[in-house]
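Narrative summary of target 7.
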Amino acid sequence: MNKIKVITIFGTRPEAIKMAPLVKKLNEEKNIESKVCVTAQHREMLDQVLELFNIKPDFDLNIMKAKQSLTGITTRVLEGLEEIFEQEKPDLVLVHGDTTTTFAGALAAFYQKIKVGHVEAGLRTYDKYFPFPEEMNRKLTGAVADLHFAPTSGSKNNLLREGISEKDIFVTGNTVIDAMEFTVEDSYRFSNKELNDIDYSERKVIMVTAHRRENWGEGIENICKALKTIVEKNEDVELVYLVHLNPVVKDVVHKVLGEVERVHLLSPLDTKETHNLMNKCHMIMTDSGGLQEEAPHLGKPVLVLRDVTERPEAVKSGTVKLVGTDVNTIVNTANELIKNSTEYDKMSRAINPYGDGEASQRIVAAILEHFGFESGGYKEFI
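Modeled conformation, tokenized:
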């Protein structure tokens, strides 16, 4: 083997953010021929990340459709990748996390007996409907993967309990921490005037994202009612809600919060703007998985608007609290962080268990060792 041919596949903004630093490291390695395939499961938000990291995909399936279903995404990815894999015959396909692109990409590779590397492997809630469909996407991907790049020792232990061989598991840290080295600037100015006009030194700015499928309906409505109460009861609080483009989410958010003072309802920001907003804000409330990893790196407490999380390390380390979608629980927990500096400091100064900025390098080293190119380069993240 002269070079290892690796095709990296992703389709959504969160995947792209976390795979971008890895793509950069793969491109630097002389023994790897690196190619990128995007499915464009999310088109506009994906393109923002590609532009930020200057990644030009070799293949673009461009599958996104209005009101797309999980079945439609899965079948379009399978059909699109079949032709690419037959043409390229890669040695390894890399997928990330828990999206439908992830599962379908791994399955397409399995059908052609191509090895699969799963980045951010081993996260579990052990409830197949929470988060839905992400929990099963991740488990099913793990079932066909050959190399498992677990971000933490806890994720590794999950895989071991499921019968994955220890020699196939590599604890690397999370690549999202690598990405933040490219994006966060202390003197950053936003492209959005509304964000630049906020006084981050005087206001306690709360950044919010909430859009997960299991929260649609009553969950999102309860979250919005809680946010309204928090702002109305705390005159020093300003709220920035990055509202998902899906009408199922957007319509509810604007109905409940659209006329509330000191609430800014904005479309999702690009990656660099999001990371710098996180860096400037007081705290974060979210049902996202990725923000639970990113925010602690910046010393920002996170309240998770879910009942379960596949990232228990953050809860254990004290950087994250689960508050679910109960209005009173959200309000009371947020108020404690707003008014109680001791509690706030405890969360903001907790150690981030998710990485040190070297995850991508560890993954590349593990791939090289697996294919027999060099040994000793991979050192487990502790």
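The first helix runs from residue 13 to 28.
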